[in-house]
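We examine the record.

___
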Amino acid sequence: MELRQLRYFLAIAEHGSFSKAASAVFVAQSALSQQLAQLESELGQPLFQRLPRGVELTAAGRAFHPHALAILRQVEDARQSVTQAEGEAVGKVIFGIPHSISQALALPLLKAVRAALPRVELELTEELTGNLVPQLRTGLLHLAVLFDDGRLDEFRCHPLLDEALLLISPADAPDAPSGPIGLRDALRLPLILPAQPHGVRPIVEAAARQAGLAAPNVVADISSISILRTSLLAGLGHTLLPPMPMQRELERGELRAVPIAPEHLSRRVMLCASRHIPASAATLAVARVVQTLVGELCRDGSWREGRLIAKEQAPFLDMRTEG
């Protein structure tokens, strides 16, 4: 298996055509076809299905695609690690952020990295939490923000903050509480929650079990923050979330948020990287920027209901490979 075969495979997958892919990678179509045939022979599976117009990935091709992409990204990281200017982080860092964290972190992080690391290209990927895990595992992501659910041992993780979950309701809902509400009463309300295993759903259900309470009264499973927001504004129910994804609506008075008390629900936000894929200097530099930025956002109140776990946090390194 050769790197050029992986590049050709990815080009064909991207363009859906041998001729367009050949033009994109500057080789003759016959040479590209020959290299793909050798790759398919080595893998023992056809990677593309030929169609009347173009091609599409087979099941084997779809399974192979993220691995090919991850390998080429790691090769580029290795090249950058030996060619970068001394003492300056250079290269591309692909950073995964859950939908419910994006409002708090995405724009401040882009600004902070641009200011502190001018030669680092930061690519943000916004996904459901459950989709970020396999991408981080295979190397499609260099870093990701994940929530500590007790199953992150495969990654190198650093705690960033604890984020309180509030009951968020339409402002004019007749059953919306005006002050703190107990967990039992909150779980009885018609709730709109992300589907398992995404977001806060495992936290809410675990809290109910630990308190010996009935399962939450979920009237809709919605894992999209934008659709969940629309559903709340339409008066279809309540949700249990940190306030940052709904910050604008809360500020405008369209939604209201009250704490869960005395139980207090929260989720721990972690910065994670692979244990087995070496981290580039650019990745480590972005990780340090994230740590500093999260501290600033919590201290000045920009990250509402965010609480730093410790005053002095250890640096997010050493991220060499393990095992």
About this structure: The longest strand covers residues 155-170. The first helix runs from residue 3 to 15.
